[in-house]
Amino acid sequence: MKKNHLRLEGCCGLSPLLLFCILFDWKKASVFIFTFGILLNNAYSVPLPSVDKYDITGTISEIEWYPKKFIKGISGMSGSAGKDRIMPPHYILKLTDYEGISSEDALKITRYIKWDTLNNNEKREPPFILVKVNHKNRYFLKKGMRIKIKGYTVRGDESGTYTYYEKIEVLGYSKNTPN
Q: Which domain of life is it from (predicted)?
């Protein structure tokens, strides 16, 4: 018993992994390292904190539409990034004069949609919000429209950002933008 006590005292400056190998055998240490590696890998595949159920009203100042796209899974990745998936057709809308959401959540959603859109040090209310809206009809929305997106929700993980909504209402056109 005294010998083990001296061994521990002499090993206090060693890394925990080396200490584990000394106290146990290398086979147990390799199982530990392998298991720890799997746990560490899964830590990177956590979902984004969701942003739930907002009724966002705003004017479309910029609009981009993307067709349906097949995305091949990445071999060895966990979660949805490791699986083949289809990105539905969607719009990326830049809404100005927005309301119905806090500036903090508007900033969060905008960064989820396109990280580099706003300055990372942005602390005040952003002048716009980016939203991703799944829709098959590329002619449904137009620049200058005033819209209300009811029940807008954002979720995502390592493979991308997924958005949902209950309904889009077209409220009219902005006075400053021609049809």
A: Bacteria
CATH architecture of 51-173: Beta Barrel (2.40)
DSSP H helical segments within 24-170, as ranges? 26-43, 103-113
Structural domain boundaries in the chain: 2-43, 51-173
From residue 50, how far is each of 54, 109, 170, 174 by CA, in Å? 12, 9, 26, 31
DSSP reduced 3-state for 58: strand
* Phi (first) and psi of residue 89, to 5 degrees: -60, 140
Strand 145-157 to 167-173 pairing? antiparallel
> What is the amino acid identity at position 140?
F
Please state whether the predicted TM-score (pTM) of the whole model is above 0.90: no
More confident residue, 7 or 150: 150
Question: Angle at CA 176, nearest 5°, toward 175 and 177?
Answer: 100
By percentage, how much of the chain surpasses pLDDT 70? 62
The average confidence (pLDDT) of the chain is 76
Q: What one-character-per-residue DSSP string does 137-160 give?
A: -TTS--TTEEEEEEEEEEEEETTE
Report whether 63 contacts 91 (CB < 8 A). yes
Tokens for 30? Answer: 């390799």
44-61: per-residue pLDDT in tens? 445 666 677 899 999 999
